[in-house]
Amino acid sequence: MKFLKTFALSCLLALGGASMFAAEFSVRIMPFYDIAIQSPFKVVAGGTASFDLSAITVRSRDEIYFSAQVAPVFLKAPNVPMITMVDAGGAVGYNFRINDRLSVSGEIITGVWTFPKNEELNLQGASSLYFGGRVAGNYYISPILKAGAYAGYKNYFYQPTPFFHAIELGVSLSVNLTKGLFGSSGIKAESYDTQPLFPIFYAHYDNNDFGSITFTNIEKNDITDVEVSIFVEQFMSVPKVVQTFERIKPNEEFTANLTAFLNESIMNQMQNQLTDATVTVSYRSLGKQSSFENHFFLQTLTRNSMSWEDDQRAAAFVSAKDGAIQRFSRQIAVGLRNTVESTSDVNGLYARAIFAVLKAYGINYVVDPSSVFSTSDTAAVDFLQFPYQTLLYHGGDCDDLSILNCSMFEALGVKTAFITIPGHIYMAYDSGLTPAEADKVYGRNKYVVQDDKVWIPFEITVPQDSFELGIKLGIKQWNKYPEERKLIPIEEAWKSFKPVTVPESDVSVQFPKNALRNVR
What we know:
By secondary structure, this protein is α+β, with helices and mostly antiparallel strands.
């Protein structure tokens, strides 16, 4: 067995690395019985050992193969003891695959034979060429084992008449060493296309793909019960099955979209890195369970990273459960508990309170020269702050302030929305009023009606000016871009991009004293 393994490996390496696994090496054992034609020998039997190399594939699963063959042949004539001779040569054949289990093959054989000298029987030695052919029917027991029966003709050439020629009948058993010894897989990875992983969307990736990978069935038969799974060891507890296929035909490509059930540990990612990932394809081939693994790297970004292919994505940073936001919202709710009972415009009261608190706290609008929101490159990676970070830093750009304000409104039970216009994002809040009531409070046409709500656009980049200016600029910018503007309710965006809160958001932030004194 050690010799066979070494010999098979040598043959495969001789083909070169590029075709090593495209070719298959097999050993075939063929015991036979010959019906001699015009020969003194009455019993001719033996066994051929054939070393087969299937080097060329035709029609996706037919094979042209080449063989090196050797056979001891046992001759028996009347009143003569058994005589042994040997032939050795080669063959070229074609295996026509009828279906997954059955094939018909034909081969042409040629080589040399030698008859040893036997002084005891007074027999002279002889040698010459032989030629012939075989036709066989084969049954694939498994991807490794193949059984068959064959018939053929063999002529041991000699002058002036053949040494003998015969009709040959036999059976065969073939072992595919490429699959049996080297574990060659019937799956080939063709290509993969993955996007960077954004930790903020770790829950989103459970139902939404971040890439795909394409495979080809390189088995000579259909594969069934195909199951594709992915495992990112650093951020997953168990592999996730991402796609199943009932049957894949030979040479057929199939593509799996990659999703993953990532755990919260990915939110500890503070710098970009490459992460190991493994995609496994398990399948059945002729009843045998097999698998193929493909290893590659995923780029994992920092938890503050995001790209703007979809403006709804920023909603994942809007969290009413952010620790610092909870501190501020509770203080506002307590400070206004008596005033709330005496007003019909509760949401407007909360809006003025949030503005006053953030102004007193010292929140500032900071232009971020590296921000990509104002560019047309939606695939570029942007840095967004969590609400608690904007409070700690006492400022941020337009997306950071929108996230902060929306989080505070949502913590107080007021529905919010993003407003996007070319190069800018700001917010709107649900007034809780009817259009007629909003006309009296804000003025006619100073609001947006969408989804049966009256939304008040509010410009968040004037935190140190006045609440009235924020309202005025909010509707002005909305009216300036009638074709490009969008109002994206946070509640709707959360359905696709769930809000994420990091544990360290529960930081100590000082609620500004007397910030609510003039809020009415």
